[in-house]
Design brief:
Pfam families: CheW. By secondary structure, the protein is α+β, with helices and mostly antiparallel strands. The chain has helices spanning 59-62, 109-114, 135-150; strands at residues 4-11, 14-19, 23-28, 43-49, 52-58, 75-81, 84-90, 92-99, 104-105, 119-125, 128-133.
Length: 151
């Protein structure tokens, strides 16, 4: 049983995590995000990061939170999901935590069926519960939504 490291970030006053192997860097939100027409509301646009065009995803909007304000403390968590780079807008990035299998609770079937498919499970650290994202499912959801909107 080996531990997997997750980078933990805040989103709408809750803690979330994504496997650190996907994380490339954390940057401040640039002043210029170029909007792209006919995108889902949670796609804020694209940025140019050292010559690479990267899609910016507002996770608060993607997860249906009512409060989706971006503040001066907000950050872009740059992740590479297979061959795709995404910039995830998060409220703050806090720490790196190692989870082994015994500290990850799988989502029950009700939550899985009606909830968000991009969730992997709930990480338990002492009294804290951290929602763990499944990076490959998140990528698939983003691009499936884009394809549905195009047709």
């Amino acid at each position: 049983m080996s531990a997997i490291s997750y980078i933990v970030f805040m989103l709408n006053k809750e803690e979330y995590g994504i496997e650190i192997s996907y994380a490339q860097e954390i940057i401040r939100i640039p002043k210029q995000i170029s909007q792209i027409p006919n995108m889902p509301s949670y796609v804020e646009g694209v940025i140019n990061l050292r010559g690479k065009v990267i899609t910016v995803i507002n996770l608060s909007k993607r997860f249906g939170f009512e409060q989706t304000n971006v503040s001066l403390d907000s950050r872009l968590l740059i992740v590479e999901l297979e061959d795709i780079m995404l910039a995830l807008i998060v409220d703050d990035v806090s720490e790196i935590i190692n989870f082994d299998d015994s500290s990850i609770e799988q989502l029950n079937s009700v939550i899985s069926q009606i909830g968000n498919n991009s969730l992997k499970g709930i990480g338990k650290v002492e009294k804290r519960l951290i929602v763990l994202l499944d990076a490959s499912k998140l990528k698939n959801e983003v691009f499936q939504q884009k394809i549905r909107m195009e047709h």
